[in-house]
Amino acid sequence: GQSLEQPSEVTAVEGAIVQINCTYQTSGFYGLSWYQQHDGGAPTFLSYNALDGLEETGRFSSFLSRSDSYGYLLLQELQMKDSASYFCAVSSLKAAGNKLTFGGGTRVLVKP
Amino acid sequence: NAGVTQTPKFQVLKTGQSMTLQCAQDMNHEYMSWYRQDPGMGLRLIHYSVGAGITDQGEVPNGYNVSRSTTEDFPLRLLSAAPSQTSVYFCASSYRYEGVYEQYFGPGTRLTVT
Fold first, then answer.
1. B14 to chain A nearest CA, in Å?
2. Which residue among A31, A94, B22, B35 is least crowded, i.e. fewest CB within 10 A of its CB?
3. Do B50 and A42 touch (CB under 8 A)?
4. Which residue in A108, A104, A111, A89 sits closest to A18, CA to CA?
């Protein structure tokens, strides 16, 4: 089967840096992606890592270590609008195609 | 482009009723999927499709049916609603299915079963 673990909640102040860790167990691993979801809204794609290393997209960066089955999302220069839930998700190969499995989500609360 | 659209936005059903949640996308995406999200939890995959005529089960398929007759539409049918199916349902699509990772989500359908 597949499993992903990430912290349930993180609190930080505006301007700070937050790192959300994600560890996973899966067969046929293809890549790790991250999504943001505001309360009452739909998830939106943030970033993706298929290879080891760091991917930077503006204030957000994502890291992957395939050998450690581990990744993280780094949120820099936190803003109030970054208060949301963040989900890691693994892509895995399956006979008829791929599927995306999500972790339970990390709720980030940004305080003034 | 409208992206991914879902109807209805809200629905209340009685136990035992059946209904179809509609999902459509206008991006010519091959890959489409249905998830449910219970309060405070992540998304769980119900069914997915890698193209017209091809569907497969996700991790929580029981009580749901899907079909994919066109690239654009991917309806989800609840056969006999149960209170345990109270949830928010999201449809998503992706332009590729090999290494799918960037999915575009619809606004969701909030379903309550009494």
1. 24
2. A94
3. no
4. A108
